[in-house]
Amino acid sequence: MSPRHSAAEAMQTRDAILDRSVAIASAEGLEGLTIGRLAAELGMSKSGVIGHFGSKEALQLAVLDRAGEVFRTEVWEPVRATPPGLPRLRALCEEWISYLERGVFPGGCFFVAAAHEFDGRPGAVRDAVEARFDAWRGRLVKEAGRAAEAGDLPDGTEPEQLAFELMGVVMAANHAVQLHRDPQAPARARRAVRAKLGA
Amino acid sequence: MSPRHSAAEAMQTRDAILDRSVAIASAEGLEGLTIGRLAAELGMSKSGVIGHFGSKEALQLAVLDRAGEVFRTEVWEPVRATPPGLPRLRALCEEWISYLERGVFPGGCFFVAAAHEFDGRPGAVRDAVEARFDAWRGRLVKEAGRAAEAGDLPDGTEPEQLAFELMGVVMAANHAVQLHRDPQAPARARRAVRAKLGA
DNA sequence: ATAGCAATCGAACGTTCGGACGCTAAGGTG
DNA sequence: CACCTTAGCGTCCGAACGTTCGATTGCTAT
């Protein structure tokens, strides 16, 4: 084979490793992601793979970053142009459900899976997962707060409580799709969102 | 050491293996459960451990059964005496949330964790997890149906949709407790349930 | 032209995994 | 008492794990 030696080509290699890693980790978890398997599937040596990251934990963190970019592109970007408050909150939920429906990650929501995998083990990966959820929940709470301020939500609606319940709806949909392969799950989730945010 | 050879004592050993297995698997997953670790923690040999089950997969299925017994004892039994329909559905949700709050399993809901761990890998364990969720959801739908028949729920309430949303509420609570260690999560879940089932 | 850097390889490391084997010793049964 | 079953032990195996190391190769700046 022809090894790559320029910095530009090395970045291509790194990208290829991360793409494959996201695919594997989405289906089998961040621990199911093994360096040997990555090397075999990419036609490289194990040391060639790990050389880009230094350790498996650093690879996992990089994979989390890459998955975060995908999530941002697929869920957040399409919604940025929507006016803040209730309209954006509705659009956010729709894109979020659609992201599950389209199977952006073959194993369902990457972060929900990572959360369950790492919530019991202290470490950098767990902290990174928690930080991402905090950021996401913050976004939901912010938009819900704007919607409430604008009077677009029923009186007494607490943004924190609403965000909590929306998380639940999407997690239920994720679960139904992944475990039960229930094709009705996205429709149920949309209906639940509509009950909370109106049509 | 003094090996045990009577059938009764062997059952005690089997019980001890399962108890420890549930504790380990709850915190680290059914795959994180390893025969060598079990043997070390129980002061036995690996062959002494696996001899009771035959294979790791059979052990995992037995652990799932044991966890199911715990769930039944902690969540279902306290509620059996409550009248069917809305009262029982309410009691069910309360016990369900309380089971998360009390930390019956140190890693949160055993089955939610197992579902996320195995939803991507075909096999007997995955099937068993799915069957348990089907049974549980069936119970929720049945009680919701009775409540609707009795006129105790708003007109147009679909039992399937209600069960879906209740699953979401509890999964959100589980997630908030396990990943964020959020002490308010049970209260939020109760509030969400109250919004759906009344006080 | 040459020195240096970085990407990648191949091989080896120590560990851990699930599992298989043969053995011992005790209980239950005739 | 004799026999059979079996709980449990100790040992071993092949595979896979993450990681480390030196060698090789090609690009790039001097």
UniProtKB/TrEMBL annotation, chains A, B:
UniProt xrefs under InterPro entries: Homeodomain-like_sf, HTH_TetR, Tet_transcr_reg_TetR-rel_C_sf, TetR_C
Residue ranges for the DNA-binding region feature of this UniProt entry: 34-53
Keyword check for DNA-binding: yes
Molecular function in Gene Ontology: DNA binding
Keyword Oxidoreductase appears in the UniProt entry: no
Membrane-spanning ranges: none
Keywords: DNA-binding, Transcription, Transcription regulation
Top-level taxonomy: Bacteria, Bacillati, Actinomycetota, Actinomycetes, Streptosporangiales
HTH tetR-type domain boundaries: 11-71
Protein name (database record): Transcriptional regulator, TetR family
